[in-house]
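G., the chain you wanted modeled:
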Amino acid sequence: MTWPNDADGDVMRRLQNAGFDFSKKYKVDFNIDFDHWPLDKSEVQRILSLYPTAEFINPDEEDRKNGITTGYVLLVFNSEVSYEYVIATQKSLSQEMSVIGGVCESWGVMHG
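Predicted structure as tokens:
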């Protein structure tokens, strides 16, 4: 398989080199970062209306010591992992969340 020379393509190559089985479904995490935190009640409700299983992750003590003051929203989807899926999901989530200052630029998958 070949992927573009970008951050997501790099992740795909690392997964392939680690023996990742791209034909299986996995829990894929997508993180939505915001330009402000905490989110207000209406923003939280908007997210939960779209994604009832969304998790709201606040910065912990170590984050705050390192100057990280904003949390993020974690969404988990069960899917096969492909470059196209990751790019399309990040784009869709970013478009949905842009009205409340959110962007999705990171994702991950546990395998083992």
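The helical segments are 7-17, 41-50, 61-65, 83-97.

Shout if anything looks off.
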